[in-house]
Model the fold of this input.
Amino acid sequence: MPLSITDEMLEKNPFFQKGKQEGLQEGLQKGLQEAVVRMYEKLNLPPEQIASVLDIDLKTVKQILKEKE
Done:
């Protein structure tokens, strides 16, 4: 009979929790990068305004745009 893993078992597993957290962080980072690039390219917003709208550091916005080049 195959073993089945329940949601409750996964929630208690520290390895699952770590992977879940890392996945969330990666997803948030990709979403932020996409938002910055779209605001810059499609709306022609300057980095200072993007930082203000997204409530993030200007240095972060500039780094994201530099990586996009």
User: Anything to note?
Assistant: The chain has one domain: 14-68. The CA atoms of residues 26 and 32 lie 10 Å apart.
